[in-house]
Amino acid sequence: MHSHNVVHLDIKPENLFLLSPSTDQLKVIDFGYARRYSAARTLHVKYGTPEFTAPEVAAEDPVTPAADLWSVGITTYILLSGVSPMHAATPRETLLAVKAADWNFDEKAFANISPEAKGFISKLLVKDPRKRMTATDALRHPFINLANHRGLGDKINLDNLRAYLFRRKIERGTNQVKTIVKPVLLSSLLHRVGLTRRQRRGQRACGQRGRSRLGRRRWLRRQR
């Protein structure tokens, strides 16, 4: 993909499919946010999934193929542990954590994960995109070579991963009918601040007063 000067910009577990049940070959799908990349011109992007987007995207800095490698790091972290290193209570808090590259290994979830796997993730979740592994470097990493020696390490506990996937399903909505969702600017999520309780009460009161006035006007029209 990168060799064809295409950046995906939305790599996450939902966008990875096995070609068949009997193979380990993955297929990347959903190129809705993908862009053509050229070193000769600056690329900025405004959309993405907060939990998987790279720090430079959250900071509205120029984007390179390294943004996809950050997403690969996040995806690897989640698949191995069932824990998301960037997920927070709101999209805004998630993006702030991403922008600061504020993450660490969950001690309990990574208790039985190999040093090679941790090293792989650590070289991808680097704030400076210039210091991140490239796709070529990642494919040569010792962690990838472990795929040729299945069954030698501890088994991964999938309970956390199942819980994570359930949460993602709830967040996306359980409706089976496919709908088209208008993308939301990441910058709008980053700068969005929730209403205070007093502001919410004020909005409700204004709405009630508006409905009362509308009802009175309708009553007066009926009396004429």
From TrEMBL:
It comes from the Eukaryota. GO terms for biological process: intracellular signal transduction; positive regulation of apoptotic process. It comes from Ridgeia piscesae. PANTHER family: MYOSIN LIGHT CHAIN KINASE, SMOOTH MUSCLE, SERINE/THREONINE-PROTEIN KINASE 17. Residues 210-224 have a biased composition (Basic residues). Keywords: ATP-binding, Kinase, Nucleotide-binding, Serine/threonine-protein kinase, Transferase. Residues 1-144 form the Protein kinase domain. The lineage of its organism: Eukaryota, Metazoa, Spiralia, Lophotrochozoa, Annelida. One of its GO terms (cellular component) is nucleus. Residues 200-224 are annotated as: Disordered. This is Protein kinase domain-containing protein. One of its GO terms (molecular function) is protein serine/threonine kinase activity.
